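We store chain and fold; example below:
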Amino acid sequence: MPDSVYKLGKLPKADDPRTLMLATYLTPAAPVPPAAVDYAAAVDDWGMLGNDTVGDCVLAGQAHADMLWVANAEHRRLPITTLMVLRAYSAITGYDPRDDGPGGNPTDRGTSLLDALKFWRKSGIDRQTIKAFVEVDPSSADNVRLAIDLFGCLYVGVELPDAVLPHAAGSLPPWTVTPDGSPQTKPQPSNGHCVVYAAYDAEGLTVVTWGTTVKASWAFHAAYCDELYAMLSPAWLRHDPPGIDVATLTGDLELVARR
């Protein structure tokens, strides 16, 4: 486990058969994704947003996506603070900072991405909401590229291997390992972490995590990503993205929300 400078906090993937899949809503008009895109460069200060002391990575990732959309689409910095992120973490999980003690905080239990996505759609951090979300098949690199290109970023759950866990401030190894049979490189469910994919090229992906970015190879993604979502952000999309049946998607999501 990383030390106090780097916390985790993603709970195991919540399996809900009602979760909608991106592939269902792709149309023949879907474009071929470009060889590379980079939406991370527009943000110059991501901020740790509490994930150095609390297991709020799922909410920090949500804030990082909001920051990316506004920076790219509106060319301004979104003033999301650590306090805003921690309030959202409390609203979803019941986290209470007053319960902290020598043995840790029993209310700091982490979050599932699905619970956070539902919160994002209804409330959001500082009223930064999304219109809809869909799950993306991690095994389809083409769909991963297309979703980053069209939606600006992806909301990602990973089961990190011990080999890439940072143990000193400012020290983030590149995410290029793959399982080789050793305990250090196998996916660890206890190392559940939420990140944002904000760019890609032929070599791999740019990951936003712990207030900075790190490069991940496509092989790393294939080995350790266990859930992946694309979000329709009003801040990012002034018009429906090409090749996505947004009308059917939002209608289906409304039906799911009523159940």
